[in-house]
Design a protein that fits this description.
With 429 residues, the protein is mainly beta. The chain is 11% helix and 35% strand. It starts with 9 loop residues before the first helix and ends with a helix.
């Protein structure tokens, strides 16, 4: 039986030729273009299959599926609400704090609910919370060398959370302390020549710091100024004698103040005194008399005997300082011993200088009073005159002595402050 072969149609041969040409072109272009195979489609498949994604840009193979990015975002954590921020001044752990410095607590992002400050003994130091609860202050003087603790509670403005904060600080430890005393003392009435004297019980290294802490207020107002007598005493006097009736207030605010080399004031002090009437004694060695004037009018004239040429009375503005109904006069206290020395009790003795000059009763020299000088420097008067002087004169009253053969009274001798013209007085060397 013969095997009969079927002849291929001509269109099939043409298709094979086209396919071969397509493969040759693909081979020539490489990856630079799309494969012809990728564009040939079975008509039947094209009609029945769903649309496919575009061919891969590389043209290296059949069409690949495209991955679509996820649209789900990563969750960001919500930050916690901010707490209240408390700031204390002095800051926590600060040492050497000025005991006069204000202590404050402030808050941001909230309000203060409470603040408690305690000393080393656990005692509470009272403070003041502001009406808006944003700050708290203490203005009390603190002790030296003490550690204070602050405990603050603050409420957050965002969520109401209360946060407690604790801090502490320590005040300065002085190397040494000094106390100041003043004269005239509080409530005294003094004469028109009485300077203000402030005495420190320790030498003061920083005089400027000490003066800055002293305030002298006069009513009515009068010009005045300071002068240091030594390293422990400073004085203040008006340019001229006080106006009678003046009120003088003295404040020495040295607590918490460094007066140099770590010397701090032990405590503040304040006094007020009054200037009385003007009572002035004028003693003239030329006439051997004392003329006493009250408010400018002569009220008494007293015969006197002053120091001899060997022991002359000093010239100048002396000021009454102390009074004794009886006083032991001992020449050894001012260096006189041996021949001419004495130890004698006298009546109605009123001191007018630190070097030992007094107005006192000297009944033994009554015959010389008004005529000659026979004393060792004191102003000798009769017993009656001494009693009158003792009763009439008060601290601060001036006794102005002139025309003796003696030297001029020194500014530091008693209260000889008015010995210097005012411009020299305040020009400290």
């Amino acid at each position: 039986m013969r095997n009969t072969r079927r002849r291929k149609p001509r269109w099939a041969a043409a298709a094979v030729a086209v396919l071969a040409l397509g493969l040759t072109a693909c081979s020539a272009r490489g990856t630079a273009g799309s494969s012809v195979l990728g564009t040939l489609t079975d008509p039947m498949s094209a009609a029945s299959a769903p649309s496919a994604p575009s061919a891969s840009p590389s043209g290296s193979g059949p069409t690949a599926a495209v991955t679509v990015p996820s649209t789900t975002a990563t969750a960001v954590p919500v930050p916690p609400p901010p707490p209240a921020e408390v700031t204390a001044s002095p800051a926590d752990g600060t040492e050497g704090v000025d005991p006069l410095a204000p202590v404050t607590v402030t808050v941001a992002k909230g309000t203060l609910e409470s603040v408690r400050m305690t000393n080393p003994a656990g005692e509470e130091i009272p403070g003041t919370l502001a009406a808006d609860k944003l700050s708290w202050t203490v203005g009390t003087e603190l002790g030296y060398g003490r550690t204070y603790t602050l405990v603050s509670a603050a409420r957050s403005a965002s969520d109401g959370t209360v946060v407690e904060t604790t801090s502490s600080f320590t005040t300065v430890v002085p190397n040494n302390k000094t106390r100041a005393s003043t004269f005239p003392s509080d409530g005294m009435t003094v004469g028109v020549a009485q300077p203000v004297a402030i005495h420190f019980d320790e030498p003061v290294p920083d005089r400027a710091a000490a003066l800055k802490a002293i305030t002298v207020t006069t009513t009515p107002a009068q010009t005045g100024g300071f002068r240091w007598i030594d390293d422990q005493e400073v004085r203040w006097r008006p340019a001229e004698f006080w106006q009678p009736g003046t009120t003088v207030a003295v404040a020495v605010d040295i607590y918490g103040k460094d007066l140099g080399d770590g010397l701090y004031g032990q405590e503040d002090t304040a006094t007020t005194f009054t200037v009385g009437r003007s009572m002035i004694a004028e003693v003239d060695d030329t006439t051997h008399t004392m003329v006493v004037k009250e408010n400018g009018a002569v009220i008494n004239t007293i015969p006197v005997s002053l120091g001899s040429n060997k022991y002359p009375t000093y010239n100048g503005i002396h000021v009454v300082a102390e009074k004794y109904d009886w006083k032991l006069m001992d020449s050894s206290t001012w260096g006189l011993t041996g021949a001419g020395a004495y130890r004698t009790n006298v009546q109605w003795a009123t001191r007018i200088s630190s070097s030992g000059e007094f107005v006192h009763a000297a009944p033994w020299s009554v015959d010389s009073q008004g005529y000659e000088n026979v004393s060792h420097g004191c102003v000798n008067v009769s017993t009656d005159a001494a009693k009158w002087f003792y009763d009439t004169f008060i601290p601060g009253d001036p006794v102005i002595i002139s025309n003796t053969v003696g030297p001029t009274l020194e500014v530091w001798d008693g209260f000889g402050d008015f010995q210097l013209p005012f411009d020299q007085y305040v020009q400290q060397t």
